[in-house]
Every structure is written in structure tokens, then in C-alpha cells.
Fold:
Amino acid sequence: MPKKKRRMTKQRKKILEVLRSIKSHPTADWIYDKVKKDIPNISLGTVYRNLNVLREMGQIIELNYGSSYSRYDANAEDHYHFTCLSCSKVMDVDLEMNEELEDKVAKFVDGEVEYRRTEFFGYCKECSE
Structure:
């Protein structure tokens, strides 16, 4: 997706700082609770709007799970995710991206792939024991 140029406001900077300080993939509500400690007058709506702007800027990615919830990731590089079906933990999967698959899909649709999202679902170590 093309990245949009926007200025880095105090709120955006703090949201990004919170996201970059953790390895998990939190919800907007969780981010709001953390940001509110430093910016007490911030609203949940402002957090949502700024998360969308940061996504448009290419600073973060949104992991959208339909109508139920989204999680956010400060690692905007192309990478895989694994979601536990039991505890809902989302983890980065640090494996090399399969570029061949993208080429095959482009050929299959006789078009071009703009971006992709590949996710894996199963049970994490704690939940599978």
C-alpha cells in the first residue's frame, strides 16, 4: 500500500512509542490505557484515528479480524503471524517470506499482487500442553 506523508503529532508519537516498546500485538483499548497515563485527556476515538493515520503512513500494520477486533503491530515489514485459537495470542513468525507464492498468485489471476497477508492459526506452546 502507498504510504502517506503526515506530520508526527504528540499523540501519534506516543502511540508509536507504546507499540514499539512491546513484542505483543495489542488492541486499541490496550494502547489507549497505556497512552492515557502520559496524555490523560486523550480519547479512545483519538487513539483509533491516530492508529489509522499511522497505518496509512506505513508506520504500523493493522491485523483485522473481521467485526470483532483489530490488533496493531509496530513491525510494518512484511512478515507472517501466528494466532493461538485458544488464548488469542498473536506472534510474529520470523521466517523468510515466500516470494514465489506472490508470483504464482499474480500469474494465476493474470494481474499483479499489491500486498499480501498470510497468517497461521493453531495452538501456542502453553495452550497445546
User: Anything to note?
Assistant: The longest helix spans residues 44-56. The first strand starts at residue 61 and ends at 64.
